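Record format v2
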Amino acid sequence: MNDTAMNEAALNENQLAARQILSELCRKNLNHDYLAGEMRLFEDLGVDSLQFIRLILEVETRVGRKIFDVETIANLKTVNDLYGVLETV
Amino acid sequence: MIIDCHCHLASSKVLPPPFFDAWSRTIQANLPHHLDASQASRVEQLLRDLNEDPQSVKLIAEMEAAAIDLAVLLVIDFGVVYKDLPLTIEELHLEHRKLLERSRRFVAFSNVDPRRGKEGLDLFEKAVTDWGFVGMKVYAPCGYSPSDNRMFPFYEICSQRKLPVLTHVGPSSASLSFKHTSPISVDDAAFNFPDVNFILGHAGVTLHRQAARMAQYRPNIYLDLSGFQAEANRGQFKNILKWHISRGLSRRLLFGTDWPIHRFWGSQQRWVNEIKDCQKEGILTAEDTDNILCANMKSLLGSLQFAQDA
């Protein structure tokens, strides 16, 4: 999934919400429009471990159910990985 | 060959729920806002889920993917501090032994709380004599110092049998004590038993400057890097590694993952690659990388017959 495919029109409601949550959490003062899919959560966006946990909790709260498990969390490295989990939710 | 010097059997029978629940409370207290009851319960559940691999199926799969040949399983005797545990200390050792018998990918270090007295010492001796345990774990957060005189008979056995000792350094679950977890807590033990090799668990990254100073001046002190995953995510790990290497500690650093504690932050493969990337970036030489991933721990395990050598 590339950035072109991940433009606003291509994102579902949950992915858009996750993008908003992430842009608010990552302390980079990034407008969510600038969150590219390839951006790495830790290295590029500076998400720390507590922010990462908040991200998981807030996305699940927004979706209204449990969507992450240990394995999916361990594989969340980029913005696109997050969108991937939310693709079929 | 790659050796992971620090793993645990991920099971609530081995790492008890109170350990994870107190960790959950710490995380909640460190978040900038109060979690509602359902989010608090979700944090607790996610942490307990880390500990759901009782047959080590996931660990073995991750080791295979990461080309980790051998992992050291560390027993922790929580029996004196946590009540109503499902296994006695003897059963806890036998639980590990079952896995040792099933897979040549593992060796194990025994741990018996010194407050168990003579009976505990006898159990430790049995574990290293009859049950194939190849080292000793010391878990100071249970409330005793690694340099407590009651530990010395255990170290006598380690000295006679040339067994390494791995002792936890740094904070742990909030349900436990941090009083004896500084690197200097190990000093009396390392001083009195110069022929026993002491591995300071996590101290390659936790309180790493104090720990490195001890390793620089005591040849029987080694630094386990497990816990580096959090520093890697913060972008700090490579600087810490450079710091150690510049102080001549290439032969004292040990690769460890502390499975299952850091599972959220990535796979075992990612952590092996993190070390290998340091070689690509010129932070480590090929020799340093081999020392950290294998040679140092292999040397500490001494006469153990490795599968690849057989």
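The first helix of chain A runs from residue 13 to 25.
The two ends of chain A are 17 Å apart (CA to CA).
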